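CHAIN AND CONFORMATION:
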Amino acid sequence: MNKTTITGNWRFVVYVLFATLFLLINYSTQRTDFIQLISLYCCAFGLYVIIYKYWNTDVLINEGKWLGIAIRFSILFSMPNLTDDFYRFIWDGHLTINHINPYAYTPDMVKAQNYLGADNMVLNDSLYQSLNSRPYFTIYPPISQFLFSVSAHLSGGHLLLNQIILKLFIFLFEVGSVLLIPKILQQLRLSSHLQLLYTLNPLVILELTGNLHFEAVMIFFLLLAIYFINKQQLTFSAIAFGFAIGAKLWPIMLMPLLFKKLGFKQTIFYSTISGLVSVVVLFPMLQQYANIFSSLNLYFQQFEFNGSVYYLLRWIINKDEHFETFELMRRLLPVFTVVAISMLSYFYTKDKFIGALQITFSIYCLFATTMHPWYITPLIMLSVFSGYRYAIVWSLLIYFTYITYIDITYPENYFVVVMEYLVVIGFCLFEVFILPGRRGEGKFREEIQ
């Protein structure tokens, strides 16, 4: 199989097959159909690798970019099939347009106070029963809440139209990211070929546009911040960074890395601007900080899925026999995360700034008690520029965790989890420490052709 064979007229067969796999996953696969899901996903991932390897001319790269956009558009009209989080998005949006503060009331409280049945019967018992976290206050930031409410208003009470409009918002942010990535690659003097790593990544397409996860909003604003910081336009970059925090909160952990990149004075300026923007954006959420904190605390204390270090420590300590030690360990995990990120911010070299951003997100993922597939989408985006490819490997392996949903009791397959993290952590350590001269921004790069 040579490049001419693949990239001749046969490439259109590859395009059709690649797109068909996404249509089959989104329109005819449920998360309980694990064998079907993982078979189709692995086929899509195989074609993704082939396209990335052989599509290396300007024409083919451009075709790959528009293929990614076209596939995202083609799945706008499918119901999210691998998650039920979107019901909460619809719920929160209709609360807002009915002048009910979604941060002030849990769904159980709304039902108890007889608010159901308002707004053209959207806030009804059927939607209430579809929610997966009825006792909890919402934790979705105001940027997301704004989009929830706009889609609720525009949909006029039609649930299918509501989720299509929500998907359209995600699609538009994703298109913005797809168009921004080549500009940043050009700034860094990296090959435009690298954009295909994100644009055609099956996990990114399925979990963001396909399954309506708002990491897409954060990724867009984070890319915008990187674009402006490369242009030395720190004010615009700080504003974009503030919106990234307002979209998902996670980028707060990246702030310590700025001291080495920008210097002390510029970092203070940058942090002040982005801090003010994020406070303004998050103000409706901060007004109900007690409710938000209670939900976040419950999330970190009760939810467990696909953890790595946490699962290992839980196994060593034996939760049932040493409960107090186990609880202490849970409380120390965020401390370990902060210490590790602080050490990284001190020791990383300035020319590997984006690589440090990726490692920072990875540290958070490593110590998290819950790690869903869509959580690693920022890592996939950053891998485009950093040279580290372990996030791409992870985007294949983490999909095997959907085996959990075969049974309604959601039993985790620990063999899958162990193999996932052994491979990903091993590959990451190999890239970072064994190949220091061939991976990373400063050393390894595909130069612009």
Observations:
- The CA atoms of residues 376 and 391 lie 7 Å apart.
- Residues 86-154 form one domain.
- The chain has a mean pLDDT of 90.
